[in-house]
Amino acid sequence: MNKLKFKVFFIIAIVFIPFLFLDSSINFFSDKNCVKSDTARHIKLNDKNYLTLVFVGDLMCHTPQIEYAKIDSGGYDFFVPFNYIKDEIQSADFAIGNLETVLGGKKLGYSGYPFFNSPDEYAAALKKAGFDIIITANNHSYDKGEEALKRTARILDSLGLSYIGTFVSLADFDSIRIFEKNGISFTISAFTYGLNYINSLPEDKKHLVNFISKKNIEKRFIQAKQKRTDINIIYLHFGNEYQREPSKYQKEIVQFCADLGFNIIVACHPHVLQPVELLKSDSSKTKYSFVAYSLGNFISNQRHRYTDGGGILKMKIAKSLTRDSVSFDKVEFYPTWVFKGRKDNKKQYAILYSDSIEHKEIYYFLTDDDWKAYKQSFGDALEILTKYYKSFSVVSKVKLNYNFLIEDKNKTTNNESE
Fold first, then answer.
1. Which runs of consecutive H residues, i.e. helices, occur in 159-206?
2. Once rounded to an integer, what is the mean pLDDT over residues 328-339?
3. Quick one: which H or E segment has residue 136?
4. Residue 151 belongs to what domain range?
5. Element (H, E) at 401
6. What pLDDT shows up at residue 66?
7. What's the whole-number mean pLDDT along residues 348-366?
8. Can you state the percent helix, strand and coil of the chain, rounding each to 5?
9. Average pLDDT in the 154-162 region?
10. Which residue of 10, 55, 195, 411 is surrounded by the most CB atoms within 10 Å?
11. Is it the case that residue 39 has pLDDT exceeding 50?
């Protein structure tokens, strides 16, 4: 009998002991969604670190925005438009957006299109809203010349905002920006297709701006890879303005970036939203590259259909502590719409989370025409962002906030009745 018990115990040990050493955490991609993961096991073992990244598109500053931001003291307050969405920006470990203007100083004269120059308060508002990393490589980087480009970098740096894509010196150009939090590190590089009204910079000035070319991108990726970070990100400024589909050139450059091993490829310039895509990448730790071809306008004075909407791309990165692997744990997009009009007896801009229905309890200041554009913008975002992946997570953030406010209101009522 004892021999029989021993044999049974021995068989059980042989079958089950190896499973104690397996990592049962699963990460996989589906054409119907971005990323799904079986989180039960890794939550139990607590074997993963997480990093939350937020990306937005163009941070424009047209002349009417400057006029609306004037305050009685003689300065400017550009923070007002961010009031409704600041919590999502501030909650990210790193929030990233494209500064489509320069900070050349008052002496040059503040201006919008076609040669942008914005008050320093604009950058201060971005910092207050929660941004951490500012992309400066775009077609307006050189609108006011070399000194304005360099001054922009100095102002951003003084505010604690990292600038990416333009450089104040050759040594600065040769450096790689590395960021780290929660045990997860990443590099980010930025490039533009060109500069307005300038075919090229002189040879001794070419280091001031990162220009898109396969040679330049590959060189930058090799530098980044040598840093052995967990994630490598590239932000591209290119594409045809106001076109909702990526061009052949966009797809060619993006595929090249994915083949190199960039994990996240984000872009802007068309001023409208374009689709997102997953590209197989044997060169990257994530095995796939996540692509957003254009994040559209986040804030601007452009009022035509498609240009008045943008959004917040939110990515949660997971890193295994028991093996050398990094994955996309969750990817979401919150569509936004830009309001321009009178609110509380003042002329204001406001970035609002959009939805398919009217939330009049929150956005009480919208007119009938505003509601029409607001709902249309949400529908347009849903249509284009789910074009390649029908179940891509496009979330109505305002609905979530609205539910929270209702719960809060009920709670207050209950307390008062007690």
1. 170-173
2. 96
3. none
4. 44-337
5. helix 397-417
6. 98
7. 96
8. 35, 30, 35
9. 98
10. 55
11. no
In a domain, 157, yes or no: yes
Helix (H, G, I), strand (E, B) or coil at 301: coil
Average confidence (pLDDT) over 170-174: 95
Q: Once rounded to an integer, what is the mean pLDDT over residues 104-111?
A: 97
Residue among 371, 376, 369, 345 at smallest CA distance from 360: 371
Neighbours of 133 (CB within 10 A): 22
> Has residue 52 got a pLDDT over 80?
yes
CA distance 418 to 406: 19
- Is residue 211 a part of any domain in this protein? yes
- The answer to whether residue 375 sits within a structural domain is no
Q: What's residue 401's pLDDT?
A: 83
Q: Which pLDDT band, with edges at 50, 70 and 90, does 314 fall under?
A: very high
Could you identify the residue written with the tokens 């740096």?
A: 157
What integer best gives the mean pLDDT of the chain? 88
Structure tokens at 42: 């890794």
Distance of CA 72 to the CA centre of its chain: 34
| CATH classification of the domain holding 220 | 3.60.21.10
In sequence order, which residues have a C-beta less than 8 Å from that of residue 294 and are 6 or more positions away?
Answer: 57, 239, 246, 267, 268, 269, 270, 271, 272, 273, 274
382 occurs within a structural domain: no
Nearest to 328 by CA among 133, 43, 92, 48: 48
d(C-alpha 153, C-alpha 164), whole Å: 9
Are the beta carbons of 256 and 213 closer than 8 angstroms? no
Alpha-carbon span 411 to 8, nearest angstrom: 59
Pull the structure tokens for residue 383.
């249509």
Evaluate if residue 349 carries a pLDDT over 70.
yes
Unique residue bearing structure tokens 């709902």: 375
pTM higher than the cut 0.85: yes
CA dihedral (257, 167, 149, 188) positive or negative: positive
CA dist list (Å): 23 to 30, 119, 356, 372: 21, 53, 42, 50
Higher pLDDT pick, 26 / 170: 170
The mean pLDDT of 293-319, rounded to a whole number, is 97
Q: Of 318, 332, 323, nearest to 393 (Cα)?
A: 332
178 - beta bridge partners?
187
CA distance 396 to 381: 11
**Structural domains counted in the chain:** 1
Residue 143, judged by CB atoms within 10 A of its CB (0-12, 13-18, 19+), counts as: buried
Burial of residue 257 (number of CB atoms within 10 Å: 0-12, 13-18, 19+): buried
